[in-house]
Amino acid sequence: MRLDKLLSNMGYGSRKEVKLLLKSKAVEVNGAVAKDVSMHVDTEKDAIVVYGEEVIYTEFIYLMMNKPPGVISATEDKKDETVIDLLDPVAQHFKPFPVGRLDKDTEGLLILTNDGHLSHQLLSPKKHVPKLYFAIIDGRVTEEDVKKFKEGVTLDDGYFTKPGDLTILSSGEVSEIELTIMEGKFHQVKRMFESVGKKVTYLKRMRMGSLQLDETLELGDYRPLTEAELEALQQKE
Q: Domain RNA-binding S4, which positions (predicted)?
C-alpha cells in the first residue's frame, strides 16, 4: 500500500497533509526518514513511525458499547445525539456503524464496526443469532406468558414471531424478566409484551450471539472487542 494512503486511512490527515508530515521529517519507515509519499510499504512487515510512535495499520474497527438511553442507534441524525457522537475522533475516522439497532430509550450491548461482512452475518435472519434482554415489566408475568412466547406471539401488525425464551426473575405488580429472541423486528420486545397485555418500562440488551455486555462499561462507554470475543463472533459464520 502507498505510504500516503496508509497514513491517511489511519487518520493522519489528507494526502496533502501527509505530504507535509513527510516534509517535516516526522515519518520513518524501518528506521529511515521517509521522503517519498508514493513509496509502497508492507503493512505487516514494515515498521512505520510517526513522531516517534509506531503506526499499527488497522482496516476494521470492532467496538462494544454500553448504549445509554436517549441516544439513537444511527450514524447521523439532525435532531438527536447518535451512538457515533459518543465516539472519539480516532474511532469516528474509521466510519463505524451500529450493528442492528437499539430503541432510543433502550440500554445495553451495541456492536459498532465498519466490517460490513460481520454485520451481515450477525443480522441475517438465516444465522439465528440469539439476543438476550433484561426487562422490567409493568404487570404480573406468568407461566402462561412463558408458554405463549415459546410458541410465538402475534404482533400488532399481524406478524407472528419466532419462539422466544422467556425467564421470569420475579413476578408481581412489577415483574423482572429475561428474554432471548432470534430476530429483531422494530420494538419487538415491547410489542411482544403488549400482545399479552403488559408494558415494558425498562429494557437492556445483555448479549448478542456469543458476546456478553461488559458490566464494567458505564453507560455511554465503549471498548475494542478482544481477539477472543471477535473470533467467537466470526465463528458464527
A: 1-60
Shortest CA distance to 230 belongs to which of 63, 17, 3?
A: 63
> Quick one: which of 197, 145, 210 has its CA closest to 171?
145
- Using CA atoms, how far apart are residues 166 and 177, in angstroms rounded to an integer? 7
Separation CA 91–CA 221 (nearest Å): 13
> Domains in the chain, start-ordered, CATH in brackets?
3-54 (3.10.290.10), 62-125+211-235 (3.30.70.580), 130-208 (3.30.70.1560)
Looking only at Cα atoms, what is the longest distance across the chain? 73
pLDDT of residue 134: 98
Contact 111, 211 (CB under 8 A): yes
Instruction: Supply the pLDDT for residue 236.
Output: 53
C-alpha distance from residue 222 to each of 6, 215, 225 (Å): 25, 11, 9
Strand partners, 136: 176, 202
Q: Which residue's entry shows cell 454485520?
A: 119
Strands 199-208 and 107-113: parallel
Closest to 82 (Cα-Cα) out of 60, 67, 64:
67
Quote the pTM value.
Answer: 0.82
Kindly state the cell numbers that stand for 227: 481477539
Q: Choosing from 85, 103, 105, 214, which is the catalytic residue? A: 103
Phi, psi of 27 (to 5 degrees): -115, 130
